[in-house]
Amino acid sequence: MKLCLSGIEPFYNDQPIDTLIDFSDELEVGELDLWVPRNTSVDSRRDIINKIRGKKKNVACVTTWSHLLNEDGSGVETSLVMESLDWAKDLGSPRINTYFGHLDSRDDEKAVSLYAHNIEGVLKKAEEYGITVCLENEFDSRRHDPYGSDITRSADRFMKLLDTIDHPLFKVTFDASNFAIAQEEYYPYAFEVLKDRIGYVHIKDARKLIPSMDANRKVWHDHDRSYVFISLNEGVIDWVRFLGEVNKTFPSMPCSLELHTMYSQDSYETDPDASERKKALVSLMGNAVYNDFYEAVRYLRQTGLFE
């Protein structure tokens, strides 16, 4: 399988694309997941393409925080997805990643019908470009969906959407931790239900909040339950078992590392003999986040499952 680095929080805030590229070099990862516009707002498109190609990086996916379930016609959200397709085409990425959205009440039939209508134009453009549109399973991370109307929370409900749209370029971004937080059995159940439609995999770990241990961590919520994203292999996911099955089923699958570990307090100093690149990266993200990524990559490589 191919290990990919996602341009998540440390690379959002007015950071040039160099920061994400430099960290991927530090971790010896050749694949990137580029967020639009979060990773693309500082450099020009031409500069971004030249920098990525100059460093011989591949873009496995272009991601947007876009939600096509929208009762007003989803114009803004659709434009964002269309933009990500243009970026993917220019960068040679075979896929984009998107999110579902929510309604003000739970109505699966309405949600499926509305989403299927809203994605029609996106899939036509995806056909023209030959790019897969992936939809990630989510929990209520922003506390906007108290009724659980986002059908990607459930493998069975997600499968109904996939069967309704029934398009070879419409697939699943499978996130085991998101399923666990949404109280869905990520493996073997969700994986087996969705297996034939999976086009991308996310790697991060999570567990329920333990206040006495987690005062320094960012807290996430799903309805009335609280969670933290934790260092890889310290949460609820059995990575050896799960990734072993992913590798057996999809030996060329790109798996994107997006830890989402964040701390309210951290140290930003490094040893005097540290490389200039490491000093710059730690000054941006802090030692704890830097070490979380470093240890995660080391652990994943030790499994022998990644190129």
Topology summary:
Elements: E1 2-6, H1 17-27, E2 31-35, H2 45-54, E3 58-69, H3 75-91, E4 95-101, H4 108-118, H5 120-129, E5 132-136, H6 155-165, E6 170-175, H7 176-181, H8 186-194, E7 198-203, E8 205-208, E9 220-222, E10 225-230, H9 239-249, E11 254-257, H10 276-285, H11 287-302
Parallel strand pairs: 1-2, 1-11, 2-3, 3-4, 4-5, 5-6, 6-7, 7-11
Antiparallel strand pairs: 8-10, 9-10
Helix pairs in contact: 3-5, 4-6, 6-8, 10-11
Essential attributes:
307 residues; alpha/beta; TIM Barrel; eight-stranded parallel beta barrel; three-stranded antiparallel sheet; 11 helices; 11 strands; globular
Q: State the total count of DSSP E strands.
A: 11
* Average pLDDT over all residues: 96
Helix and strand content put the structural class at alpha/beta
Trace the largest sheet across and list its strands.
1-2-3-4-5-6-7-11
The gross shape turns out to be globular
Class, according to the CATH hierarchy? Answer: Alpha Beta
Order of helices and strands: EHEHEHEHHEHEHHEEEEHEHH
Largest sheet: 8 strands, parallel, barrel
CATH superfamily: Divalent-metal-dependent TIM barrel enzymes
* End-to-end Cα distance: 6 Å
Strand proportion: 15-25%
CATH architecture: Alpha-Beta Barrel
Low-pLDDT regions: none
| Total domain modules | 1
Number of helices, where a helix is a run of at least 4 consecutive DSSP H or I residues: 11
